[in-house]
Amino acid sequence: MASGVATVWMPVEDMSRALKFYGETLGLKVKSEGDDWSELDANGVSIGLNGREETHGEHTGGAVLTLQPDGTLYDELVRLTDAGVTFVGEVSEHPWGRIAAFKDSEGNDLQLFEPPSE
Fold first, then answer.
1. Residue ranges of the VOC domain (predicted)?
2. CA 5 to CA 73: how far, in whole Å?
């Protein structure tokens, strides 16, 4: 039985670019840096940037990293847009919450998630 998520690995082509995106743009704390492996903290979940794995190129599908902003989804959407992030489509509304999809600097799929207000 799995008891939680230990680390999420994201393939990257350009470690410097990826570290800037995850550290500066998203605001995650960089725990370690290396040419082939760097690690960030996302509120207790480690995100590993893996330069040793091949990136997916132009293919779609696969894993999606979903992030929950500190404030509202819309405030974070504005902040990231001002930082140069392009969102894919509109914010989608669901009974279980709101989702705003975007890509990281390496083409990996990311989302902002906000649970429904009670």
1. 4-115
2. 23
